[in-house]
Amino acid sequence: MATPGVGRSPDHEAWWRSAVVYQIYPRSFADSDGDGVGDLTGIVEHLDHIQELGIDVIWLSPVYRSPQRDNGYDVSDYQAVDPLFGTLEDLDRLLAAVHLRGMRLIMDLVVNHTSDQHPWFLASRGSRDVATSGWYFWRDARPGTVPGEPGSEPNNWGSSFAGSAWTWAPERGQYYLHLFSASQPDLNWDNPETREAVFTMMDWWLDRGVDGFRMDVINFISKDPRLPDGPLTRDGYGDGMPYFSHGPRIHAYLAEMKSRVFDPRPGSYLTVGEMPGVTPEQAREFTDRDRGQLAMVFQYEHVSLDADGDKWTQRRMSVNDLRDTLSRWQTALGDTGWNSLYWNNHDQPRVVSRYGNDATYWRESATALATVLHLHRGTPYVYQGEEIGMTNAEFAGIDDYRDIESLDYYARAVGTHREDVSVVLDTLRRRSRDNARTPMQWSAAPGAGFTTGSPWIGVNANHSWLNVASQRGVPGSIYEYYRALIALRHRLPAVVDGHFAAVETGRDQIYAFRRHLGDTALTVYANLSDQPVSLDRKDRLARDLVLANYPASRRDPDRLEPWEVRVYVR
Ligand code: GLC
Fold first, then answer.
1. CA 405–ligand 1 middle distance (angstroms)
2. What is the mean pLDDT of residues 56-78?
């Protein structure tokens, strides 16, 4: 078992402010035993890669025991490792190896819901007379309807994946609420025993030596107890978000978690709450230093700019919107709160394919987007493969997809709404979460060096040239650029603590900003487009260039090339 506290410096309270986090989606990272699914031993074998990049913290997506309906975001035992990934001893070995290298590790905490195979739910579903009877949201059918028939659900909410947010359980003669799939029933946080069970489980992991948690949809844990109908959406269901995305007791529960779980411990922990729909003002409250409820939150605004309402309806992202959003979040959280900074995770399409240009300006756009993100004020997250510019999957047919959300969407769009198959497939190619989940591309070998077996999801054909082996140690590669960018954060205090100010250039395609700390000013100029842009005289002032993604021979003082970025210090 790992020694608690190793790798942690209790004297430096907010150590996570200067940290860079690397997210591992274990299923797709590295397969050590050839069964086609990544595992914990595979991670241990690749820690050099992460350490050389300059990473401080690893966030491990769920490895708990799970029926894997939502790839582990449906937990049936919070205190066991799923055999798919290894054993608890493997996890302890990973934790020890991470700490030995001076890095830290945070776990994914999925406690808005459990799996429907969790013993708490199985018991609750079977009878109203068991201890966990009230641990979930059980409700009778709407009065005057036939229980179990469509339209009899307690309210009109739709679930995140597909269909109603309620499923009828004949054994109990009631409906249960699930904001995600029917296999993910929502826990009732209003019940004190439920909260205590979660807190006890968190204690168990912290005692094991983990350094914090990424908290899955944590802003959904407090629901308006009336569970009212929501406004109707395109798919015919009601939107429950107004009643659960910032519920009446959300601050009370997070404050209780802090005082019950974290405050009694020495040292400080990285806590990051995933919060769909959170506003900058709410995020400032959650991350307010004095309140200390959470270190930071994952907001969704900047990854929703190419969607029109729901995620399947696309629109073009405009650089103006992106700049406005990013700088608004910087300013709103200011010195009171703290931002998390991310482009990618296991739920988002690859940023270089999405906001960049993975065909003509693959290297340039991947590095420009990285620079903008990492030089903001906040803690940056790198999602596996982002450091080598991995792209969307380019799957040909529905059989290539694995994600519950993608498959549900396809069934509904093609089966129920009779939409054109090629249009639906095109939408999936751009928007599906599977884009993020193709195997990590370690080498040009047949399984991309990810597996010697048959991978659980297709390897991207571009692994023949886009892989770690072809970039590591190669000057000018995306991987080496990420190393330089991360090193800059660790070298220059202004990157961590500098105040943010947007710089107006009068050019739509340019995003420019400054970070001030004492006498140091760091200025970033980024052209976020495929066209060259001229620079004004005031922007041409000679200063020290500390980072650039175009070679000196191609840098023109009067203009920025497509996706060119320059970072100056004075
Ligand atoms: C979060 C996870 C996502 C999961 C959902 C339900 O958004 O990141 O992968 O499907 O919650 O747990």
1. 10
2. 98
Determine how many CB atoms are found less than 10 A away from the CB of residue 178: 24
Asked if 469 and 443 touch (Cβ cutoff 8 Å), the reply is yes
Q: Which of 24, 69, 70 to mutate to test the pocket of ligand 1 (most atoms within 8 A of CB)?
A: 70
User: Which atom of ligand 1 is closest in space to residue 404's alpha carbon?
Assistant: 10
Quick check: CB of 216 below 6 Å from ligand 1?
Answer: yes
Q: Which domains does the chain have, with CATH numbers?
A: 396-431 (no CATH), 499-569 (2.60.40.1180)
pLDDT of 3 strictly over 50: no
Long-range interactions of 543-549: CB distance < 8 A, separation 24+: 543/568, 543/569, 543/570, 544/568, 544/569, 544/570, 546/488, 546/492, 546/522, 547/371, 547/484, 547/485, 547/488, 549/363, 549/364, 549/367, 549/368, 549/371, 549/481
Distance 217 CA to ligand 1 centre (A): 7
SS3 sequence, 90-109?
Answer: HHHHHHHHHHHCCCEEEEEE
Q: What is the mean pLDDT of the chain?
A: 95
Model confidence band, residue 542 (pLDDT cutoffs 50, 70, 90): low
Mutate which of 217, 272, 407, 434 to test ligand 1's pocket (most atoms within 8 Å of Cβ)?
Answer: 217
Q: Could you give the C-alpha distances from 526 to 436, 533, 539, in angstroms and in order?
A: 25, 10, 12
Q: Is 110 in the pocket of ligand 1 (CB under 6 A)?
A: yes
* For ligand 1, atom 2: residue with the closest CA: 216
CB 69 within 8 A of CB 82: no
Q: Which amino acid is at 79?
A: Q
pTM value?
A: 0.96
Tell me the pairing of strands 270-274 and 212-215: parallel
Instruction: Specify the pLDDT at position 6.
Output: 39
Q: Which of 169-173, 265-269, 337-341 has the lowest mean pLDDT?
A: 265-269
The pLDDT, as a whole number, for residue 259 is 97
Per-residue model confidence as pLDDT tens digits over 192-231: 999 999 999 999 999 999 999 999 999 999 999 999 999 9
Sort 454 into a burial class: Cβ within 10 Å, 0-12 / 13-18 / 19+. exposed
Given 70, 216, 306, 364, which residue is catalytic? 216
